[in-house]
Amino acid sequence: MNYSVGNTGRVLWAGLRALIVLTVVCGVLYPLAVTGIAQLAFPAKANGSTIEDASGKAVGSSLIGQRYDLPLKDGQETAAPDLRWFQPRPSRGLGANTVNTRYALLLSGATNRAGDSPELITWITEAKAAVVKDNSVPGHPVTPSEVPADAVTSSGSGLDPNISPAYARLQVRRVAERNHLTVEQVEKLVAGHTSGRILGFIGEPRVNVLELNTALRDLAAKG
After folding, report:
1. How far, in Å, CA of 109 to CA of 92, rounded?
2. Is 113 exposed, middle or buried (0-12, 13-18, 19+ CB in 10 A)?
3. For a Cys-Cys bond, which of 15, 86, 120, 168 suits 207, CB 3.0-4.6 Å?
4. Under DSSP, is residue 95 helix (H, G, I), strand (E, B) or coil?
5. Radius of gyration (Cα) for the chain, nearest Å?
């Protein structure tokens, strides 16, 4: 009996010691080490890849897209885009419900519609018409054939922060006109915020919309 109790006590004490050691190593030391290395080697990425404006205020993350809309009017369910800014890709994600709104998703995902889905075709047709209308300026109409695919389709996650250089260039004249800037100024801004393929062959050239609009805000403020 005494032997059994003593043996059980030693096993429990050994288990407790293992628990304490593993808690300290895995729950304290390892997280602190990883956090410290990340802060030293990749501080921007470790802190969420935040983007700041000229005043130093964080305006978002370069990893997650966001919309640029006008305030909702009475009776409106969907806000109209604020055409002063470069617009991102559509973001239908998993749809809108009590926890899901476009570019503010607790869950992310694609539309899950087949290529021949009537609903998807309707969405794309309406989106293309809106892109043509919004970006046509006097003397420079946009034709449907000029609208790139990313202007009318959402990404697999619904949160893509980037657009193609073609879609960015399509918006240049409208953005220049709305912000009282020259086309050349805005074209230079787009060119300066266009990233090439990773390592020269991975992915596609892209423009980060948040970074571009942050730079646009600073440029417009200078007059």
Report:
1. 9
2. middle
3. 168
4. coil
5. 25
- Select from 48, 68, 67 the least CA-distant residue to 58: 48
What would the two tokens of residue 193 be?
């915020």
Q: Classify burial at 96, counting beta carbons within 10 Å of its beta carbon; exposed 0-12, middle 13-18, buried 19 or more.
A: middle
Q: 76 pLDDT exceeds 70? A: yes
pTM value surpassing 0.85: no
Helix (H) or strand (E) holding 201: none
pLDDT at 3: 63
| 95, 102, 115, 168 from 99: Cα distances, Å | 10, 10, 27, 30
Is residue 65 within 8 A of residue 160, CB to CB? The reply is yes
The closest of 77, 112, 69, 117 to 92, measured between CA atoms, is 112
C-beta separation of 82 from 175 below 8 A: no
